[in-house]
Design brief:
Elements lengths: L11 H8 L3 H7 L8 H14 L5 H7 L5 E6 L5 H16 L3 E6 L3 H11 L6 E4 L6 H9 L4 E4 L9 E5 L1 H14 L5 E6 L4 H16 L4 E6 L4 H11 L8 E4 L2 H15 L8 E3 L16 E3 L2 H17 L7 E4 L2 E3 L11
Length: 341
Amino acid sequence: MMTSPTEKRITSFDVARHAGVSRSVVSRAFTKGATISDTARAKVLQSADELGYQVNYLARGLQTKHSNLVGIVASALDTPYRARQVRIAAQECIKRGFRPILLTAESAVESEKLTSLLFNYNVAGVIITSAEPSSKIITECNRLSIPIVMVNRGSDISGADCVQMDIDQAGALAYQMLNEAGARRLAVLMPSVESYSVSGRARAFVKTCKKHKTPALIFTSSDQSYNAGLDAAQEIGPRIDTLDGIFCATDLLALGLLDGLRHKWNIEVPEKLSVVGCDDIEQASWCSYKLSTIRQDADEQAIAAVSIMLKRIEDPTMATQTYIQNLTPLHRGTTKRPIRK
């Protein structure tokens, strides 16, 4: 039953009167780690339930130095990997007793504006998976003692903790997987728009190819989406005779490329071309694709980001943390069976 607009909102004072306790006891009952007896907590929770009381976390944050609100600033939520990463981070925050606020930003300017907006809510911490904010914003977080964790944004950011995939390992694994499949004429498909992890893994692949004296053609796409991969097939298809293996910087690019090559150019994969992606999104394992890829665990990254944030809350003076995630190669149906010597 919905509450009438004219009906009085239940406050902590109402709960205190109903339970026969002080308002400070009510506050402690809803504060994680606060000292309160089991009997008093039970009385408060029962009264709160009977009255329909809801904690006003925003007001609590404004009255104290920090609230239990956590800002998550994210971009590219239309991609399966990022959507899962953000969902797991939000779930982990709730599990640990915090309330996530999700804000979306597709550029460094937006990321900076939204992060500064969170300061008004006395957030307990900030997790950023979007474009990297300026050093000014990070400095302000440090000044306000607000932990800030960057996910896949680089490890050379002074004043921020970081969680990231090992981009050098990604490039090396992509080369290894194609090499094991017998591919020797290699290429990489990467977005023209710069980003730390996606551009970084593609460049690491090219670097590894050079190390092994194997030249790699570089194809660029408009972005890292399925449609961008589909469009790239128009450029790659006519040059298929010069290639036998390609690394796509994201799974979505790989899936689009696969459909474009198969349906528009009648190119058989992996017979004619081995294809390796990166991320291991759910769609990569679908029967229609069975994409060979490099797995970066979205759940692991999200949980690590929340864990580091909580450690920073407990110990603001600890040394800057950088969590490097190891990756896993997954041979499926788009690479030939690895050649064993």
